[in-house]
Amino acid sequence: MPMFIDTSPPGHCIFCKIAAGEIPAAKIYEDALTVAFMDIGQVNPGHVLVASKRHAVTVLELTAEEAAAIMQTAQRVAVAAQAAFDPDGITLFQANGAAGGQTVFHFHMHVLPRHEGDGMALAWPRKEPGMQMLQAYAEQLKAALQA
Ligand SMILES: [Zn+2]
Questions:
Q1: pLDDT by residue (tens digit) across 57-73?
Q2: Which end of the chain is more exposed for a tag (fewer CB within 10 A), N or C?
Q3: CATH code of the domain containing 87
């Protein structure tokens, strides 16, 4: 997990300032809704952040149009990273809320070129609650989707 934590108030956060060009960043792409720039931490060469231009904290606050634009930009950046750095793999990583691993509270998605043994780890405990619970969770989500 990245150790940098931005505690700026909403609207004055570091990614708002980067999007506005108020502080320097190694930008690689921007359009009406998104901006892509080099992550200062660089897990591996070519590690890019794709952020919404508008200040939205998490995925829950994005408009559908912004969500689509973020994924389109992330996919373009991934294709460019593959061409430029020839990684063994690419991880798209996006965290929401402190409990979700978010450290800068302005929506962003990591495009992470990956190499065998590069030291990046994500614990993924399998809990396998069984089909009855899966169906119950599915019913909860379907009800929420229709609301
Ligand atoms: Zn912001």
A1: 999 999 999 999 999 99
A2: C
A3: 3.30.428.10
User: Would you give the distance in Å from CA 142 to the centre of its chain?
Assistant: 25
- Catalytic annotation, pick one of 55, 108, 110, 115: 108
Residue with tokens 């892509």: 36
Domain residues for 26?
14-122
Phi-psi map region of 46: left, alpha, beta (phi>0 left; psi -120 to 50 alpha): left
Identify whether 107 is part of a domain.
yes
Query: 46 CA distance to ligand 1 centroid (A)?
Result: 23
15 C-alpha vs ligand 1 centroid, how far in Å? 5
Asked whether residue 92 is domain-assigned, the answer is: yes
- Cα-to-centroid distance, 73 and ligand 1 (Å): 18
Q: Is residue 127 part of a domain?
A: no
Domain tally, the chain: 1
Average pLDDT of 24-52? 97
Residue 108 designated active-site: yes
Percent of the chain with pLDDT over 90: 88
Rounded CA separation 147/145 (Å): 6
